[in-house]
Every structure is written in structure tokens, then in C-alpha cells.
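Retro notes
What went well: the complex prediction finally ran end to end.
Inputs used:
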Amino acid sequence: MNDPHTGFIVAAYALGFVVIAGMVAAILYDQMVLKRALAKLLPRNGGAEE
Amino acid sequence: MKPMLNFASPSNFLRLASWLVPVFAGLTAILFGIGLYLSFLAPADYQQGETVKIMYLHVPAAWLSMFIYAVMCSAALGTLVWRHPLADAAQKAAAPLGAGFTFICLATGSLWGKPMWGTWWVWDARLTSVLVLFLIYLGLVALWQAIEDPGRAARAAAVFTLVGAVNIPIIKFSVDWWNTLHQPASVFRLGGPAIAPSLLWPLIVMGLAFTFLFLTLHLMAIRNEIYRRRLRRLSILAAHAGDRDLSGAAMEPAR
């Protein structure tokens, strides 16, 4: 890709990747924390699943 | 209506989400693989050169920024009309995702604007109305955090969401109503898309990839909201049980 604006293209894709990865990570982390907390309150019922 | 509401019960939703999330995640990965491959192979634009590749991120993010708001408006109606707890969860789960995709839209637009327009930002009607949409999303996220009772927060957020919906047609038609630096609609327009098929197909696949990404993340986030409500309910029950134990202990004679 010999375009004078390659830096802008790479920056746009990098930024998109970082924001999407951040949203995925935040949701997965939230899920992990909630499941752990539910498992503590419901030790015999298998935690969050039902 | 009743069977639909039963189907949308949190327990049924959790069962449905447990198999929908992996299916949607798989579809998202496949669509992103194909979409990025096609985007990379797509020809350069005769005026913009390779910079047109930013379109494959910018346009799907812009589409989602409005689609997510439409989803939130439907959920807001579910909250206000049927008072359905799943609608509350769907509203709350969508707001941060809407903010994320609107941020991608604004930032990639800025990175596209600098080489093409010679400026990072201009206060024209399209850019300003999308910035207002981003601020509305942030306001909704803040509102959910500010009100402790989930029912009251849901009703306040629903009203705010429906009032903010006035911005969506402004975003869509801003390029027709006012003289803007931003180009007019070239995909969703009367008379069909104005883009060459070689550029349009990668855009459609990337649009589908982004849409399935949102659906996957939204289902996961709604599931988290259901867990959060269960945790809140169980914590309150545990606290009440603790109070009873303490008051029972207080009634016992001292030894």
C-alpha cells in the first residue's frame, strides 16, 4: 500500500480494534465478577446459571 | 402478547442466550474475516485513493450508532408500556455499546477528514448531531449509574431516550437539510446505493459483521444485567436474613 495517507488508515483500524477489544473485555470482566459474586451467594445452586 | 412476554422472561432469556451467543460470535468472526479480506482487496477510489478503506469501519460504526439508538427506543417503550424487566436490562446494556460505536464513528471520521478535507473536525450539521448522539449515550450511562433503584433508573432513562430520539432524523437528514462538508447519503438512499459494487460489497459484509458483533455483545451485556439484578436481590435477602439473625440474637438472654 503506497498511499501517502497510510498512517491515517492504520490509525483508524488500530483505534477501531482497541475500542472493540475494550468493549469485549469490559463485558467479559463484568460477567466474571458477577458470576463469582453469585457463586458466593448461591454455593449449592451452581452460581449464576439458574 | 402474553406468550411473547413469557418467552422474554429472564430465565428463558438466559437459556436462549446460552446458545445464541456462541452462534452469533462465530458468525461475527466469519463475517469480519471475509469483510476485512474483501476490504483489503477492494480497489482504491479514483479520488480518495486507499484512504477510502476507512469507510469500511466508519460507515458500519455510523450505522450502528443509529441502529443501537433505535433498539434502545424499542426497549424504552417496553419499559414504559409493559414495564418488562428485560426491556430495562436491554436499555441499560445498549447504552455503553452505543457510546463505543459512536466514538469509533467520530474518531474514524476525523481520521478520514484530515487527509480528505484538510481538517480533523468541522462544526457542520452531520458531525455536530453525531457528537450530540455520543453525548446522549454518555448521559444515559451516567443516569443509570446515578439512580440506585433499577426500576426508577429504567423509567428515567426510557424518558430521556425517547426525548433524545428527535436527534436521529436530524442526523440522517442533516446532509439534505443543510449545506454540510459531509457528503450526502450514498448507501441508504432513494434510488439505491451510489457506490460501485466493488466498493459496496465489502462495505455490506463489514456492516453485517458490525451488526452481529453488536448483537453478540448486547446479548452478553443483557445477561450480565440479569446476573446483576439477581445479585442485588440475593444481597438484599441475605442482608434481611442477617438482620433477623442479629435481632434474634438480641432477644436471647445474655449469658
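What we learned: Chain A has one domain: 1-43.
What to try next: split runs per interface for comparison.
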